[in-house]
Amino acid sequence: MTLKADVYSFGILMLETISGRSSSLSTWGITRKVLLEWAWELYEEGRLL
């Protein structure tokens, strides 16, 4: 593994821990997307705490 892969994996782990949701494909509101896509949309909307 590389440092970039480790940092990415740690970030996904943190998103899962904070949100209480899995990073696998799931229903997030109306659309189906992965946790990272959902978090990015919240960030772009200014709703990510």
Secondary-structure topology with pairs:
Blueprint: H1 3-19, E1 26-28, E2 31-33, H2 35-45
Antiparallel strand pairs: 1-2
Q: By helix and strand content, what is the structural category?
A: alpha+beta
The 3D shape can be described as: globular
Radius of gyration: 12 Å
Give the rounded overall mean pLDDT: 78
What characterizes the major β-sheet? Answer: 2 strands, antiparallel
Give the oligomeric state of the chains in this entry, treating copies of one chain as homo and distinct chains as hetero. Answer: single chain
> Total number of helical segments?
2
- SSE run: HEEH
- Please report the distance between the alpha carbons of the first and last residues: 30 Å
State the total count of DSSP E strands: 2
Unreliably modeled segments: none
State the share of residues found in helices, binned by percent: 55-70%
Proportion of beta-strand residues:
5-15%
Provide the spatial order of strands within the biggest beta sheet.
1-2
How would you sum up this structure in a few lines?
The protein is α+β, with helices and mostly antiparallel strands and 49 residues long.
Question: Would you mind describing this structure in some detail?
Answer:
With 49 residues, the protein is an alpha+beta fold. It has helices spanning 3-19, 35-45; strands at 26-28, 31-33. The protein has 2 helices and 2 strands; from the N terminus they run αββα. A two-stranded antiparallel sheet has the order 1-2. β1 and β2 form a beta hairpin. It starts with a helix and ends with a helix.
